[in-house]
Amino acid sequence: MSEIKFNDETLAMVQSIIKRYPEGKQKSALLPLLHLAQAEFNGWLSSPVMDYVASLLNIKPVEVYEVASFYSMYNLKPVGKCLLEVCRTSSCWLRGANEIVEHIENKLGIKDGETTADGKFTLKTVECLGSCGTAPMLQLGADFHENLTFEKVDALISEWSNKAEHSKYLDIDTFRKN
Ligand code: FES
Question: Can you spell out the DSSP letters for 164-177?
Answer without folding.
Answer: -SPPP-S-THHHHH
